[in-house]
């Protein structure tokens, strides 16, 4: 995973620049006010700070759709250029108006970075460490703030403090960011697949994953192109073919799905469990009982929660279905010794799709094709311009047994398996009936014997005789399956090449799909609550807030003035955030996003209540200063563990690939509008209702956020992005029924 980690670290430099800017403006505004005599004009003061937020809001309105059009990487390059230009203009700034223009340009760079870096990291990171890597932007931002505060503090001790240099230094680290975006960062593989650039996507994935065989993930990325559709949850019992047949008799032959592994003679079958509702496995986990006790809880929360309750090791790279399941459907090296393949088909196949040029690119390094050759034979045929590129899948008749269904499967991360099944039976009228389905499989229970006794399978490659597992399955049509092409290829399903689907452009109606709409409610809601919890307003004005709280009392004895003292306290506060973010990175993929939110928000509320009490009750200057400083530090540390990074992480995870850019732009627009309101109104609120009133409002918002998270925000740790969006589709459907 080293490739994905290094790419995430490099991308998060953009957030370091954002944190750098936040700290420099917070420190330099003390000196800007003196030079431009803004003490009597809090509106202009607030505008100087908020102008970057206005710029970020403006550019966010179209950053998502444009990134879907030109890619994620070009937008990050533009962001680095804007950072550099804004630093130069701020270094010049002869008057307030030029400074406002510079802050606007700076906001353009911040808006692109903050909006697209979480998306970029989510699309390049493996599911098992996606949460940790997407916490890097928070860590980098706080690190940038600490470095910047140290610089501002050192400059504040000079006789003639120059705020222009404080702000202009931003251009230096922005050059490093520019170099990394140009020479190191690859394009997002999911974006490449959405544009049909399959060969490039495979090369990027090979670099990110550090291995040649990325066929499973390539197939997953193609499946992620779909939006909406009918998705159902089914349950299968998976085990050795002879065991399930012996136990369940002839009925198993009719319904079973046959699975074939690379070892000669090894086969498994998956038999659907009858008589279960679409959310049956949730009720068996006991989560539905919790839902009934909390009537307002979203069914989606219990749906996600039930998976994590039963699968505590879902974040493991190792398949939990059973030890050999992850490789069971891949093509081992020995297959090439025993099977002969058509050379032309091998060269054309690539990832199971034509290459960018429509075929002809050799793909000799690919160890596993898009579909396992043991169960399906994939051919790409050009049937004419009027029909486009078609992928026809022909069933290998020698592998079909007793009317069963052939399945090809491969691991896609987080213990999930991607499979396809093609079934064909004679209907009552004698006509053949068939269906092509995509399946996401995950173990539901502990492997056990057919008599029900539980056994463990440590260190074995093939389950012992008589063992089987229960697996939950998300079943839906493949993303690029088109019914109208079935008549042209009756021997199998027809799928268009991803580039042809991409040529159609984004469909804005997809935003109204129930799953997407449901995800937007979660994303927009948590962004609104995060902003009105007040963190950015507190950060921007931390030096002034602490100065009003009397922090100069703590440092007066060592000869540091009030302005320098408040900047130093801000630097130390930011330094204390870094271990908290490090702990959050560790827990993000272990305890999960929802757990961290529900654990840290109550601490936020408590610290805000202490701040309110400290400012309402006369406790003496020293006690007041200590309580205020400690409460602010606790507030910051807990915020960066949960409410800081998680909203952006969630928003980058819950939307389908085809509309991810647009949906992220909507959530980011909410983020920046809330940021502007909080930042611009904070000076006015401080003058009117004081610190106690401000923190009281923030405490009420945090309480509302706690309720919202408990009822509406699901747990997404360790799950592939495409599986998350499928769950949202199912959860939205269930919520509509309820």
Written description of the protein model:
This protein has 738 residues and is of the alpha+beta class. 58% of the residues lie in helices and 11% in strands. The protein has 32 helices and 11 strands. The chain has a 7-stranded mixed beta barrel. A 3-stranded antiparallel β-sheet has the order 4-5-11. A hairpin with a 6-residue loop joins strand 2 and strand 3. Helix 17 (299-310) crosses helix 32 (721-737). 56% of the residues are buried.
Provide a compact summary of the structure.
The protein is built from 32 helices and 11 strands.
Element layout with pairings:
Elements: H1 2-11, H2 13-36, H3 42-70, H4 72-92, H5 96-124, H6 130-133, H7 136-156, H8 163-168, H9 171-183, H10 189-194, H11 198-209, H12 215-223, E1 232-240, H13 241-248, H14 250-255, E2 257-260, E3 267-272, H15 280-285, H16 287-293, H17 299-310, H18 325-328, H19 335-338, H20 343-349, E4 376-382, E5 389-395, E6 405-413, E7 416-426, E8 432-443, E9 448-449, E10 467-476, E11 494-496, H21 498-503, H22 514-532, H23 535-540, H24 542-549, H25 552-555, H26 562-588, H27 593-616, H28 621-641, H29 646-651, H30 660-688, H31 690-712, H32 721-737
Parallel strand pairs: 2-6
Antiparallel strand pairs: 1-3, 1-10, 2-3, 4-5, 5-11, 6-7, 7-8, 8-10, 9-10
Helix pairs in contact: 1-5, 2-5, 2-7, 3-4, 3-5, 3-30, 4-5, 4-9, 5-30, 7-26, 16-17, 17-32, 22-30, 22-31, 22-32, 24-26, 26-28, 27-28, 27-31, 30-31
